[in-house]
Amino acid sequence: MREKVAHHDFLILGVALTCLLLPTLGSAQNNDINRAELRNFDQFLDSHPQIRAELSRNPSLVNNREYVEKHQELRTFLEGHPGVREQLRENPGVFMHREAGYERAEDRRGGGEYQPHMRAALEHLRQAESELQAATQDKGGHRVRAMDLVHQTESEVQAGIQYDNQHPDR
Fold this sequence. Notes:
82% helix, mainly alpha
């Protein structure tokens, strides 16, 4: 009889532990999936610096049908990565913030330095573009031209960061 009680107690303990551990295991699996999705999105943005710059400035663009249609590569990527699409749809700012953190960590892991001056330059360029967007439109085309130049400059800064990360010995 005592053996049956001990066996019963072990069975209850096993069920209780399973109930406690399953959410943790599920959460760990979700974190791995999220990390993989973040890595995939980072790789996509690495090869599309213009889209990175635009989404960094305005993450909600990813939920703008017209914007996504205009950027076929982004649309194709999102169709192939529904987890990324869902996370961006639910909270684009948070996901882009996580992606930026991933990018900084990637800089450090890849043997490249964090490059705070290049990152600061990107932030200043994004702020400049925001100010240009907010300005009135009657500037004889110079405002629009300035925004185009800011976009080009952002792409060049991103390319410089990426180059340095890929060629740390230079």
